[in-house]
Amino acid sequence: MRSGLTIAVLAALALGASAVRGDDVDHEDLRRAVERNELVSLRSLFDWIEARYEGRIIEVEIDDDDDMLIYEVEMLTPKGNKIEFEFNARSGALMSLSGRGLSDTRDRE
Fold this sequence. Notes:
Layout: E1 6-8, H1 11-14, E2 19-20, H2 27-35, H3 42-52, E3 56-65, E4 68-76, E5 82-88, E6 94-99, H4 102-105
Parallel strand pairs: 2-3
Antiparallel strand pairs: 1-3, 3-4, 4-5, 5-6
Protein name: PepSY domain-containing protein
InterPro entries: PepSY
């Protein structure tokens, strides 16, 4: 069960996401965790997504789900559908992928 803790990721702004939200944020702790290789960088996740899916990343959050940090990345496809990726923030493993029009945007592999 999700704890409800949602942490915005300001780095997403620098990387082009147009909307980032959240509360109880300690961005410096996140940045330092990425620098210590304790968390996967958003840039590496964005590179992975953009290599495989066509669209624009519109929102990024990091959630604490029973002590597992999860990056949630939302993408708007060229056809206007929203798809959501969930990644283990520590390993970068894709945990789930959902949304309408998913098969329409999988054309980059």
